[in-house]
Each structure stands twice: as structure tokens, then as C-alpha cells.
Amino acid sequence: MENRSRPEAFETDFQYGTSKNPYWFKLKDPTPDLKSLSYLDHATEAHRGNWRSQFLQYSVTSSSLQQGTPPAPLHVEIGCNAGHVVIEWAAKNPDHRYIGLDWKVKQIYRLSEKIRDRKLKNILGFRANAERLHHMFAPGEIDFLYLYFPDPWPKKSQKKNRTADQDWLRRIAPTLKTGGVFHIKTDHAEYFDFMLQEISSCLDLFDPFEKTFDLHADNPNRHALKIPEVTLFERLFIKDGLPIHSIKLKKR
Hints:
The chain is of the alpha/beta class. It contains eight helices and eight strands. Helix 3 links the parallel strand 2 and strand 3. The N terminus is likely disordered.
């Protein structure tokens, strides 16, 4: 995720700049085989409230919806890297819809290639800044939200860049449906304490549950866990003996 300054810098007057990264141009003007598999910058805000209709295997006018069947659950992973986890979720759950979001253009381009190569119809990639999440999704549009191992910005001068402070939590809370779940994991104890403090200021919006300071402590086979049960970083942290801090938030 790019460095953040002040929250208002990401509101209505915000503009994504042109990048010199060659993968930015590949996402901006994709080849036909990658078209509609990922969205770049402000294009990630073009279908706010209607993202389910953008999946290749989904129609908002399907007979099942006309008969009152609930829409497919929408999962959004913030900081998905190249989609190592989210793409496996999508492959295992074809009736659900998934969006992987990351700031790094190369990673989202790689995710697009994986989606194409595996012929998945229920996943999209977003190259965007998580500060803009409430501009990408309408109130109640997301069923499940994930933030796994965000940059802890440990230095005093960096802490202003942290995701999951109470201001951000309040801005993005409406994107989750009532009863929707936001899952956070980190290996950084001090950052987790910071997030818990920020969450405590948002209890009117979220109901915390399944809080743990060592997610895999009771699993004797934790070293054998593989993606998508754990992330790439998580496997390394487990190998190094670092406890995984985790909390889930249910939208009120």
C-alpha cells in the first residue's frame, strides 16, 4: 500500500497518478485474454454497488435471483499480493465471488494471469489503495473482508501510515453488510495492540469475536499448514516460531 498522509487526501478530490511501472500499462490496456479480469485505479470504483454483475459467470437477472435466492457472497481480501490465498478460495468455492486488492501493479497483473490460466470465473483483481475502499463498494456490498499481515509501520514516524486505525475502520464499516465479518491477522504484537485499541473505539459498529494472541497454538500440525489455510507470510512466521494474532469483527 502506498504511503498515506491525511485521510482527506483520499476523498473525492483524490486522483491516481500515471505510473512508469510497465505493469501499470499492462493493466491499463490489457490483452484480450486478460480483459475484465482486473481493474486499475479509479476503474475499481466504476461499478460501486454492482460488482457482482461484473463476474463472468454471474448475472443479476438470473432466474435464481428472480426467485429470491440470495446473491452469491462477496469476499474481498486487502493486500492480496499475487492472490496466493484468494485464488485458492475462489477455486474451492465456485458459488462465491472474490476480489483480491493490492497496491502493487505487478502483483495484480500476476493475479490476472493466474485467473486466466486457471479459467476461474468468480474472481477479480483490483489494483487500488485500501484507503479508497468505501469508494469502491457500496453500503452492505461486502459479505467477508480480510486484512492479513499488513505492513506494521513500526517506527514512530511511520505509524501514521497504518491501516486499521479507527478513522479508517469507521469509513469502511458501511461496506460490510449487517452480520458481515472482517478478519484481521498479524504477527506484529505491538501493531495488534494498536488495532485492538482502535477497534475498542468502534464497538458501535463492530462486535469483536474469536480474538487470539496465538492462532495456531493448539494445532500440533501447524508447521504442515498450507495455502489457503495460511498465507505465504504466515507459513514463514510459524516456521520462525512467531505467534499469529487474530481477531474477527462482525458488522452490527
